[in-house]
Write the structure tokens for this entry.
Amino acid sequence: MISSCEVGLTKPDPAIFRLTLERLGVDAGEVLFVDDTPGHVEVARALGIGGLCFEATAQACADIRGWMSA
């Protein structure tokens, strides 16, 4: 877990996404970022991270299943 107050970074700063990838030891293409703020999702996508904008639970679940099967 990464706490923004501990690392001094917050969304939508790309540095927090990069730090997360580094700590997880994964490539951006292996990650799906889900958020309800379109600007946060856009930053993730710009870094090569899969991004889904959460609008409703059913929609998010369907989108996540679709992403996982792609």
Observations:
- Residues 4-69 form a domain with the Rossmann fold fold (CATH 3.40.50.1000).
